[in-house]
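User: quick one - fold this with nicotinamide-adenine-dinucleotide bound?
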Amino acid sequence: MSYIQVKDASEIQVPTNPTIAYIEGDGIGPDISKAAMAMINASVEMAYHGQKVIEWKRVMAGDEAYETTGKHLPQESLEEIKRCVVAIKGPLTTPVGEGFRSLNVTLRQYFDLYANVRPVKYFPGVPSPVKEPEKMDMVVFRENTEDLYAGIEWKYDSDEAKRLRHYLEESFGVKLTDDTGIGIKPISRYKSQRLVRKAIQYAINNRRKSVTLVHKGNIMKYTEGAFKEWGYEIARKEFADSTITEDEYLKSPGTASWKIVLKDRITDNMFQQVLTRTSEYDVIATTNLNGDYLSDALAAQVGGLGLAPGANIGDVYAIFEAVHGTAPKYAGMDVANPTSLTLSGVMMLNYIGFKEAAEILEAAIHEAYQDQKVTQDLARQMNIKPLKCSEFGEEVIKRMIAKS
Ligand code: NAD
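Assistant: Sure. Structure tokens for the protein plus nicotinamide-adenine-dinucleotide:
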């Protein structure tokens, strides 16, 4: 087996036959994983004719792992993903009543996958609720490790909440009523800046036009507002040659068209802007909660979560995943839409430098949609006959072969 090597804790070296970990997932996971992997393998074959291949390493997690090992996420699986550095996963059921809230959160924390990256782009042919969905081409970088998601919260009648209310009143004169639950929103300079750095670096590497810092800093000055300030700070410090602020750009438009324009928008305004001035936004860097809401809203604009890919990326480790859940009612029926997971595969191919394969695969998916080859989730909105999950995969592969 040839593993991806980590160089200097921030760079990866990918062999021609990298071993990539995969988790099939629960519910519809096995169906969509099978279809997605067939499409990914075909794209690598079309691009490199055997000179490069992916060697898949199956890793157990979720219901299947629980049945055989008594654990939803065995230590061995974590170690295997660590060896592989890169993994792709189907959706996992969130177990109820265990020591942690979600397997996804555990994976993000274990590998410090601090950037949740979600590209959102329209595929012609897909039904959309807006008039000009084709204007959407954005990539959301959502901070993955802090904010209100850090889980620092207490129920209103807990001893901790009582003590905190008392402390706030005694020390700061802040009076909260006895029926007040408390959550804490930590936002740090280090974690904000590593996220914004990743977003700017992505924008530079992929020749994007702008990075917009989305925040609610007018109200939450020292968390959301600080995120914005720290974002500009890291841009000035590390990317002075390749970025320009929107203010500077507006004063002298066109002077540096190759530079990444740095903008900032308050979250509520941003929700309007993405609908009314869609084409003005490109890469988005934002805090955890904003990013959660915004990325789902953007996905809805171009046809929904069934098509939205995602990745959780740290300094080197990366786990690519379908954005949707396990859709249990369709489990084992071969009817689910494998596009989200397959597009996550496109992101994975780009991440490991298999860019030609990524292009071939994305283009073939585009074509299949243009030809109205869709699974039941979209077929029912279009009033056409649906393809099975596996048949959709075959249609995509057919289009790759036709072009080779
Ligand atoms: P869900 O995404 O599974 O389903 C929401 C709706 O979308 C359902 O109607 C479902 O049938 C449909 N749907 C989702 N993916 C589809 C696909 N690929 N093709 C066709 N239709 C699709 O969300 P849920 O019902 O809230 O959650 C079910 C389970 O999934 C829960 O245990 C939840 O914790 C888990 N979940 C996991 C992840 C993940 O692993 N990343 C994400 C979200 C939810």
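One thing worth noting: The mean pLDDT is 94.
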